[in-house]
Design brief:
heterotetramer, A alpha/beta (244), B alpha+beta (344), C alpha+beta (434), D alpha/beta (283), B: 344 residues, alpha+beta, 4-stranded antiparallel β-sheet, 11 helices, 22% strand, D: alpha/beta, Elongation Factor Tu (Ef-tu), domain 3, Rossmann fold, 2 domains, 7-stranded mixed β-sheet, 30% strand, binds flavin-adenine dinucleotide, binds iron/sulfur cluster
């Protein structure tokens, strides 16, 4: 029996969903191993129970909370896909400001009309079995996890910084180019794609288990940005994670 | 030693000539301010005046990632990756880089010799080139001069605008057969290539410093600034630790086993099942890194396992300097000695 | 047919984001017919406050993964306008190539994966793998190539990496562009032609429904406008993009978490069909032929034909991309660094045609290069009022059909607009009627 | 320093290729541990010493160092016992009789059998530490007259985690084996000792000159056991320990198993206590 797989989206940009539809070369191979029973963005069908549920997006409203509990109850394995689901991602930036202020910026006088929750990771509400990190999640990571699950293998947690893959690709370090990069404290696994394309790492895959915040801030400020700006950069994708 | 003069403008011709022996690998520009060793496609593009490449020459013999085998999950069989023995010329190599290869030879060939490394190394020829030390080079402090020729087959010494070419081995001589742009010359000593960065002690004295440095507070100071990115190990020419991983294709039928460079500066490096981590803190890891360079292997082989290329310092985002750490340890050691003497 | 009708499609499938269709008819009188957007709000404007110009496009690209390139490029244009950053001709050409790639990918995705199942009356593209394997494979191939344009030129098709204020962090290699061109000509072109055939065969399934409305898009003097131009309304002509607020006039409705827009009438249309109606004369001849073959004529008032207009554009961008690559190669690729030295600080507007229609980004920067105020107006938001108006006209016309058929027609109508709901809820949250 | 020129072509080895071995028997011992009997192609002997290990590999999953649990005196096959803790080991749970596993090795240095002949052997096994020690125990039992007393201290967290219970029964009944079993926490049916393994040591009556101790267990056990033995005045040089480290190659290249300057897979995993005492990272 092929495992029944479902995809669900919460508060997100749906880029991770699209990235799955963008697996053009592998899509047909994937369908040999799994049966997709729910994928709102691509199909009408719905099912009752799932072997593997992939969750995209942050939890940011009371109805999201209900829905994720429901999905968890009906799923054997639950996987958080992409930084919104894994740690709140960019959505969590709104948590940094007092919620009233956020609402005022957007709604002006009508701010009290609307209910909203902080943007939370899936794991802060229900148990998450596996994570696929990144904004967007990378297709290779997704496939790797899927194949692991098909093989019954427990995918180990990756805890090496982006710099590792950056070095293995023999990139010129952006710090040597006078740029500021979050690679040293960001959990790798993306093949350092941003530095490889000349752009700084924004920290989209979340931070290492034990990042050296102070050391990192010192590095960043030594390379020409203000402490304030350095903190903001760190928070971009990791507002829920950074402990300063 | 035979010595010839070679015009700067004839260097590309020499490179082309060497191509007859095998693939030529030489320094090229890479990025805005960096260099890397690349196979030569156009000999005009080779850069002989460079400070250091991003990755060391090691990458040619112990590649950053390397496929060890293909396997099939259908019948649990595998096919080893063949590493052919291919002739190759490594051109424009600095003395410390050559020394690092000799050390790597020891690491990969002593005990049980590894065939993958051996095959890649078997038919390699090395052509050295002199360099002007920048603010990071300190190879003199670890006993390697600019003109150290051990390991090279030929050596190019930059003399004003042109080069002097030394024939160091018979293999080197063979490489030059049929190359007619050389003129017999007298060796000239080149003045003024000074190292700016120096370890305060002769390297012979360092193992003793390290003997008492295990509990130094210098490690904690370094650990405070170190962001643990692993760049120092991953660019080091004498580091050789690796990790092995299996990758399975989407078909879930075939896959491959790969190894890739690892770094003892990474938090999971010494973790075992059950979560016990034998080097849990950055402090333990930094210390291990330096002990690997100046104590553990050094005690056995009598040589520092650091060649002073300066990569770990130049490529450290936190500007942590190998030489500064050692000089701090020395200073601390001196202080301890002083106190001991005073007390007596 | 009864005089009472109650339709509620909860979490409409095969669109990006969450939306519900609500139709309510009592005693033959239509009480409600609208698309309500129920996606939770995301507060992008608030998040942008205080962020540096280096980060603006990184953040706004996350408004929507489907339109990430469109948001990113539009954001860059707004930032450059605000900070007075000049960009090179090469940068502009590379951006246009990227916009073409994104248009191709999005239009192909919509036509084959989201709309085609409607024409064939199946629930998703997956059953089509068994029945129409070659068609699915072709769609995948076209999408792959479109995405490869993004991967090669911008590092990654979803949330592109290299486009930054003032230029690119990496310029593609000549060989990469040569290869792209080869694939455009040898793969995309035949596939594009085959797509026209497929769509022709499905055209019978397109409902005959017309409602003339106001069509708004960009217009460029020299080319079919996708990257920059003036705002053009089929009712009132051209406007500078800096006056965009006079055009969009956003307003709040009680049934949607997204704002609606109107200009000269109660609603207007943006997207491929608007671009076709306003700018079709600037399409390449091959695209015009394709339009004719599929029965798309100038000044088409059938919103269902938006899907066909998208296919016509797909053909256009294949040819236009080849032209851009030729120009780039002819001029020789230069290893330019992005120009990131501001010459002024203040307000800037960016506007581009993204697959779903005209998009505006509006930023104000302080002297440190940080954002003080931001506003984004998204195509789907602009289309919502028009969709509601369409429904109001459509429901009485098809009231004789069964409830299931009516629901199907309505779903298909909404999908024809290719709505991107993730985008449209970038800011507003209103309670809606369940 | 070893030079390239000193290495002959036939000395350069394919170090990383496993030999495929058939599982001829397998049995789940406890919830977590599974026992396997494997056969090399053609029924060759593995040729190991007690205390040595092999690298076990399952394609697609990875490799892990695993001690050989059977005695070298057993011919035609060898045995492993594996606790399911991570990526590879959890998948191995599904491997059954008839499946194949890749094996490299044997690697490392085992117990110094030469030095043990004629001596009293004190085995201290904590949890899964019994796995490598079982090889030594069975070797001693197979050559019983060559050795003095055989004292086995074995501790587990609770009775359900005790390994090789059949063999424990046999050992218990033999009068040439002194077996003491303890569990950290008993259950209602448990009649034996409770308490950590070190509680068994003070009561031992050892002939200090003649006793050699072999200890294997979880990392934290070593310090306490060594302390107890030392307080009994057992000389350091009579104590052998087997240390666990992460290992990726087993042949002294990958660097993961280094304990200060010492490669655990080369000099160990069995060490004389004297040799590791000065190593700060050892215990
Ligand atoms: C010489 C020697 C002999 C041995 N003999 C035996 C034996 O006979 N029997 C036996 O059962 N074992 C034995 N071991 C231990 C065995 O090698 C390990 O249990 C095995 O390597 C685990 O491999 P794995 O792939 O299952 O675990 P892995 O998944 O590789 O786990 C290894 C490491 O990763 C960490 N890790 C795993 N998952 C996570 C996660 N989600 N988050 C964070 N960290 C994680 C673990 O904590 C551990 O540190 C021996 C070890 C050595 C060195
Ligand atoms: S560019 Fe960034 S990721 Fe790469 S080495 Fe430098 S700091 Fe690390
Ligand atoms: S380099 Fe950084 S920002 Fe880029 S994908 Fe990797 S983790 Fe994300
Ligand atoms: S330790 Fe640093 S200076 Fe020494 S060889 Fe390694 S990278 Fe070069």
């Amino acid at each position: 029996m092929k495992p029944k797989v479902a995809f669900f989206d919460f508060t997100s940009c749906e880029g991770c969903q699209l990235n799955k539809l963008n697996l053009e070369n592998d899509l047909l191979d994937i369908l040999k191993h799994v049966e997709i029973v729910e994928f709102r963005e691509a199909m009408d069908d719905k099912a009752d129970a799932y072997d593997i549920a992939f969750i995209e997006g942050s939890i940011s409203s009371p109805s999201c909370v209900e829905r994720i509990h429901d999905i968890r109850r009906r799923s054997k394995i639950l996987v958080a896909l992409g930084s919104c689901a894994v740690n709140g991602g960019v959505n969590a930036m709104k948590n940094l400001q007092p919620i009233d202020e956020v609402r005022e910026t957007v709604y002006g006088e009508d701010k009290y009309l609307f209910a909203t929750l902080p943007a939370m990771s899936v794991s802060s509400i229900v148990k998450v079995d596996y994570e696929v990190r990144g904004c967007p999640m990378t297709q290779q990571d997704f496939l790797k996890l899927l194949v692991s699950l098909v093989l019954g293998k427990q995918a180990p947690r990756y805890d090496s910084p982006v710099c590792v893959e950056c070095k293995l690709s023999e990139n010129e370090c952006l710090y040597n180019r006078g740029m500021v990069c979050l690679g040293p404290i960001t959990r790798g696994g993306c093949d350092a794609i941003c530095p490889s394309f000349g752009q700084f790492c924004t920290g989209c895959r979340g931070l290492l288990d034990e990042p050296n915040y102070i050391g990192m801030l010192e590095v960043m400020t030594n390379h020409g940005i203000s402490l304030d700006e350095a903190k903001k950069r760190m928070l971009l994708f990791n507002s829920n994670e950074v402990q300063l | 030693m035979e010595c010839y003069s070679l015009k700067q403008s004839d260097v590309p011709a020499l490179i082309d000539h060497l191509g007859a022996y095998g693939e030529v690998i030489a320094p090229h520009r890479k990025g805005d301010v960096s260099y890397s060793f690349e196979p030569v496609k156009d000999s005009e593009k080779v850069v002989l005046e460079y400070n250091r490449t991003l990755l060391p020459l090691k990458k040619c013999f112990l590649p950053p990632t390397e496929k060890l085998m293909d396997f099939s999950l259908k019948d649990m069989s595998y096919k080893p990756t063949e590493v052919p023995i291919k002739p190759a010329v490594y051109f424009g190599i600095h003395s410390y880089e050559m020394q690092s290869i000799l050390r790597l030879d020891h690491s990969m060939l002593s005990g049980k010799a590894e065939s993958n490394y051996f095959n890649r190394r078997k038919k390699s020829r090395f052509i050295g080139v002199s360099f002007s030390p920048d603010e990071y080079h300190f190879s003199e402090s670890v006993g390697i001069s600019i003109e150290e020729m051990e390991g090279f087959d030929l050596y190019l010494n930059k003399v004003s605008d042109d080069y002097q070419l030394y024939i160091i081995s018979d293999k080197g001589k063979d490489l030059l057969k049929g190359f007619d742009k050389l003129i017999q010359a007298e060796p000239i000593h080149v003045e003024g290539r000074e190292f700016n960065k120096k370890i305060r002690y002769h390297y012979n004295r360092l193992p003793r410093v390290f003997q008492y440095a295990y509990h130094s507070k210098v490690w904690a100071e370094v650990a405070e600034r170190c962001v643990g990115c692993g760049s120092c190990n991953l660019t080091c020419p004498t580091c050789f630790c690796f990790d092995v991983n299996d990758q399975v294709e989407v078909t879930a039928e075939d896959g491959m086993r790969r190894r890739s460079w690892d770094s003892c500066m990474l938090s999971t490096f010494a973790e075992v099942a059950g979560g016990e981590n034998f080097r849990e803190h950055t402090l333990n890891r930094t210390r291990h890194r330096l002990y690997r360079k100046f104590k553990y292997i050094t005690d056995e082989e009598g040589l520092p396992w650091c060649v002073g290329c300066g990569r770990c310092t130049a490529f450290c985002p936190a500007d942590i300097s190998m030489v500064d750490i050692i000089n701090d340890l020395i200073r601390e050691d001196e202080k301890a000695q002083f106190h001991k003497t005073v007390r007596v | 047919m009864s005089q009472d009708l109650n339709i509620k499609v909860h979490h409409l499938t095969r669109v990006e984001g969450h939306g519900n269709i609500v139709v309510n008819m009592k005693d033959g009188v239509l009480e409600k017919a609208h698309l309500s957007i129920v996606e939770p709000p995301r507060f992008f404007e608030a998040m942008m406050k205080g962020r540096s110009f280096h980060e603006a496009a990184i953040i706004t690209s996350r408004i929507c993964g489907i339109c990430s390139l469109g948001h990113q490029i539009t954001s860059l244009v707004a930032t450059e306008d605000a900070l007075g950053l000049e960009i090179s001709e090469q940068t502009e050409l590379l951006r246009k190539l990227l916009v073409n790639g994104a248009t191709l990918q999005s239009n192909v995705l919509h036509a084959y994966f989201l709309a085609a199942p409607d024409f064939l009356k199946v629930g998703s593209v997956f059953p089509l793998i068994a029945t129409h394997k070659d068609v699915v494979l072709r769609a995948l191939r076209m999408k792959r190539l479109a995405n490869d344009i993004g991967d090669i030129v911008s590092g990654r098709a979803v949330h592109p990496i290299t486009p930054v204020p003032g230029g690119f962090t990496r310029i593609p290699e000549k060989s990469e562009l040569v290869e792209l061109k080869r694939r455009l000509l040898e793969e995309a072109l035949p596939d594009g032609i085959a797509t026209i055939e497929t769509m022709k065969s499905l055209a019978g399934a397109i409902p005959q429904f017309e409602r003339e409305t106001e069509y708004i898009s960009l217009k460029h003097p020299d080319e079919y406008a996708l990257y920059q131009g003036d705002i053009f309304s089929s009712d009132s002509g051209a406007q500078d993009v800096h006056n965009y607020l006079d055009v969009t006039n956003e307003f709040i409705v009680d049934h949607s978490t997204s704002k609606h827009a109107r200009f000269n009438r109660s609603s207007y249309f943006v997207g491929a069909l608007a671009r076709w109606n306003n700018n079709h004369t600037q399409l390449v001849p091959e695209a015009l032929e394709a339009a004719e073959a599929m029965g798309l004529k100038p000044n088409c008032y059938n919103p269902y034909m938006n899907t066909i207009a998208q296919v016509v554009e797909a053909v256009h961008v294949i040819f236009d991309s080849v032209r851009i690559i030729d120009t780039l190669l002819e001029k020789g690729l230069k290893n330019e660094k992005p120009n990131q030295t501001p010459t002024r600080y203040g307000r800037g507007i960016g506007s581009n045609e993204v697959p779903r229609g005209i998009l505006f980004h509006d930023y104000t920067y302080d002297k440190k290069g940080s954002i003080v105020e931001a506003n984004c107006i998204i195509p789907t938001g602009q289309n919502l009022a028009n969709i509601d108006d369409d429904m109001k006209k459509l429901v009485p016309e098809i009231i004789a059909k069964s409830k299931e058929e009516i629901t199907a027609d309505l779903e298909m109508l909404v999908r024809a607009y290719d709505p991107c709901i993730s985008c449209s809820v970038h800011m507003l949250d209103v309670d809606f009627i369940e | 320093m070893k030079r390239l020129q000193e290495v002959k072509s036939n000395e350069a080895l394919d170090l990383y290729y496993p030999t495929m071995c058939e599982i001829v028997d397998a049995k789940q011992l406890t919830d977590l541990e599974k026992w396997y009997e494997l056969k090399l192609p053609g029924g060759q002997d593995l040729g190991h010493e007690p205390g040595q290990f092999v690298e076990v590999s399952a394609f697609g999953i990875g490799e892990a160092p695993i001690s050989i649990s059977s005695s070298p005196s057993k011919e035609g096959s060898f045995e492993l016992c594996i606790r399911q803790v991570g990526t590879l080991t959890k998948v191995l749970k599904r491997y059954e009789k008839g499946d194949t596993l890749g094996i490299r090795g044997p690697f490392g240095k085992g117990y110094p059998i030469e030095k043990m002949y004629g001596k009293d052997i004190l085995i201290v096994a904590g949890g899964i530490g019994l796995v490598p020690l079982r090889s030594l125990i069975n070797f001693v039992l197979d050559n019983r007259q060559e050795f003095g007393r055989l004292i086995i201290l074995y501790g587990a967290k609770n009775p359900s985690e005790l390994l090789f219970t059949d063999e424990l029964d046999v050992w218990q009944r033999r009068d040439d084996v002194e077996l003491h079993v303890t569990v950290d926490q008993g259950d209602p049916s448990w009649e034996g000792n409770t308490g950590v393994i070190t509680t068994l040591i003070p009561e031992l009556d050892l002939n200090l000159n003649k006793t050699i101790a072999a200890i294997t267990g979880p990392p934290i056990m070593y310090k306490f056991v060594v302390m107890s033995l030392k307080s009994k005045q057992l000389p350091d040089s009579h104590i052998y320990l087997s240390l666990e480290r992460r290992m990726k190659c087993g042949v002294g290249k990958c660097g993961h198993c280094q304990i200060n300057g010492v490669y655990c897979c080369q000099e160990g995993p069995v060490f004389n206590y004297v040799d590791i005492k000065p190593l700060e990272e050892a215990l």
